[in-house]
Amino acid sequence: MSYVGVHRKQFIEAASAPVERHRSTRAALASFFVLLSLCASLSLLRLNVGTPGGGSIDRWTFGSGELRIAMALDGFDVLRHGGNESPLALTSRGLTLGTASETNSATYLQRRMPGTVNRIGATAYFEPALPGATGQVALLVSASPLSTDASKFLAEVPNMAIHFVFDSETWFMSVWRHQGGQDVLGVGRFATPLLGERSVEVIRRDDEVSIALPNGESVNFRDPRIASWSSEWATWELYEKGPGIKPAVLTQIWAGWEK
Fold this sequence. Notes:
The protein is α+β, with helices and mostly antiparallel strands. Helices cover 17% and strands 42% of the residues. The chain has 4 helices and 16 strands.
């Protein structure tokens, strides 16, 4: 029997009991649903099916509520470059920060998964904006972690098997060479700018990726470095190329992995 079913049975039985016991059961039931509400603000869900070759998928859902930002990002390395008018916060839409105040402002959420990453995705919310003035979201799978030392961050960017970037107008997929920049595998432009919540997912099978784009289309790319540079490190990035740009909002992020 589910927990909901157990509490429902106790609540019905309490109807014929003394008033104090009835109140106690109602209070327990209310507490149960308060807990469910809090869990809805931020959840970690691990699934054991659905990933290429088996493995699991871990998902994090962000939303406003009484949970603190530190709790929402427990287990992540949060790396910053540039500046924004306000720090990361949980809003009614999801996880975001204030308007960019510097050029090339970026926030990275880095996590070491339990096994090699074979899937990474995100749901982002985009508000209406002038052409070229929307924040970008990037999905990264790297051979080693990004440096948590700000003084070494740019000089020690690792090899990246997956570097997929999109905003409300465009997308591109590349592999990133340590100290060598990126090799772009494909680019595209959406026929209609994205508005509201949109999801994207990159699924890796050996040296090939299949990308479910946020407009419902899909593309595939193959490169030997996609396989050789994949590891257990997954990163989600919010990026703003210049001052005045409003970041995208992360509603949900996820990564699939296998041992």
